[in-house]
Automatic annotation (TrEMBL):
Gene3D superfamilies found in the cross-reference section: Alanine racemase (3.20.20.10), Lyase, Ornithine Decarboxylase, Chain A, domain 1 (2.40.37.10)
Positions of the Orn/DAP/Arg decarboxylase 2 C-terminal domain: 20-336
Cofactor: pyridoxal 5'-phosphate
Chain positions recorded as pyridoxal 5'-phosphate binding sites: 214, 242-245, 338
Residues involved in substrate binding: 245, 280, 284, 310, 338
Record pathway: Amino-acid biosynthesis; L-lysine biosynthesis via DAP pathway; L-lysine from DL-2,6-diaminopimelate: step 1/1
Protein name: Diaminopimelate decarboxylase
Subunit-level organization: Homodimer.
Pfam families linked to this entry: Orn_Arg_deC_N, Orn_DAP_Arg_deC
UniProt enzyme class: lyase
Length: 382
């Protein structure tokens, strides 16, 4: 993150905390790195990582399409002007509403099970998602291409599902694979792409090979791109990619203020953000870099805990910090992906505000919710 510390202080002062801040330059740089590595590949942003309309609009303006997994995400894609070839509809259990919305937009459907050719709207464009049945180097909950994971059809089924799509009058364009998120070992990608390439004798040439996302923020993109391109060439196919985390993670930081400290056998620094703002540490044991935006004092180790009445409400463990005092600001880094998008109103907490730094100033891109926003859909008893 390259936002200067005085600008972070100013944002916390102006918009309050907890606050998500995004660096537009980092978002643009991440997209440039993807394009440099993957060349002509069509880029679909997996908006589950962060669906803020301002960020979507910026990516849309740069020619990026969207991978959507719900009616709500399809509505967001439409809202920022994406249509047709720029929209993918994905998900293991699509609803009638999602099929209809996808058809209205002229989207491409990612077929996830053998029954789907009979469920798609007439004459749909489609890819078949293949589960390569591989153990991958990530948290179990983030692995989507393992044998026994609920996603995709088996390698054996894939040629048959392509045939069934064609027989049902659909435009079966190719294959799709996405083996998980925050994958640490690049060899996992090579293995998955190689398994897909082995299907060529059974499928013949295809128009599209979509290799999903799942790249960690430090991933060797040129290496992954080379392997993906090699697999696509086997089919004579055009390459599509669906990065989520890679595009937005580094651009985003969660700013939180120190509320106080306590010792209960472990030293805790208590912050005004926790699991309701950033769920990933609790859900996946994710480790985010934590930076103290204050100086001075002896550095000791602290667990960073949020305000929720849940003992798992921890943002980080064993973080070296100079003596924290109430009001001090902490920056939780690499929080742009699956941070705000997974935030919740559990405990009737207001989901945080979000602000974008353009190198010279701030724009509020989501106001902080109020308690009234949180209960807006409920009925007050007469
Ligand atoms: C099908 C599909 N594509 C792309 C992504 C994006 O993954 P990541 O954010 O790890 O790049 C996901 C995330 O779960 C996904 O399920």
């Amino acid at each position: 993150m390259t936002i200067p510390h005085p600008a972070l202080y100013a944002a916390a002062e102006r918009f309050g905390t907890p606050l998500y801040v995004y660096d537009a330059a980092e978002l643009d740089a991440a997209l440039s790195r993807v394009r440099a590595a993957f060349g002509e590949a069509r880029v679909f942003y997996a908006m589950k990582a962060n669906p803020n309309l301002t960020l979507l609009g910026r990516l849309r303006a740069a020619g990026v399409g969207f991978e959507c997994v719900s009616a709500g995400e399809l509505a967001r894609a439409e809202h920022v002007g994406a249509r047709g070839e720029d929209v993918l509809v994905n998900g293991p259990a699509k609803s009638a509403q999602e099929y209809a919305a996808g058809a209205r937009l002229g989207a491409t459907f990612i077929v996830d099970r053998a029954e789907e050719p009979g469920l798609l709207p007439p004459r749909s464009r489609a890819l078949v998602r293949v589960n390569p049945a591989l153990a991958v180097s990530t948290h179990d909950h983030l692995a989507t291409g393992a044998a026994g994971s609920k996603f995709g059809v088996t390698l054996d089924q894939a040629p048959e599902v392509l045939r069934a799509l064609r027989e049902a009058g659909h435009d079966a364009r190719g294959l799709h694979v996405h083996i998980g998120s925050a994958i640490r070992d690049a060899a996992d990608f090579s293995a998955a792409f190689a398994r897909l390439a082995e299907l060529h004798p059974h499928t013949g040439d295809l128009e599209v090979l979509d290799v999903g996302g799942g790249w960690g923020v430090d991933a060797d993109l040129p290496g992954i791109a080379r392997e993906a391109q090699a697999a696509a060439s086997v089919f004579g196919a055009r390459l599509w990619v669906e990065p989520g985390r890679y595009l937005v993670a580094r651009a985003g930081t969660l700013l939180t203020r120190v509320v106080g400290t306590k010792q209960t056998g472990r030293p805790f620094v208590l912050t005004d953000a926790g699991m309701t703002e950033l769920l990933r540490p609790m859900l996946y044991g994710a480790q985010h870099p934590v930076t103290a935006l204050w100086g001075g004092g002896e550095v000791t180790r602290w667990d960073v805990a949020g305000p929720a009445c849940e003992s798992g409400d921890l943002l980080a463990r064993d973080v070296p910090l100079p003596g924290p005092t109430p009001g001090d600001l902490l920056a939780i880094g690499e929080a742009g992906a699956y941070g705000a998008s997974m935030s919740s109103s559990y405990l009737t907490r207001s989901r945080p505000a979000e602000a974008l730094w353009d190198g010279t100033g701030w724009t509020l891109i989501r106001r902080r919710e109020t308690p009234q926003d949180v209960w807006a859909a409920e009925v007050t008893p007469a």
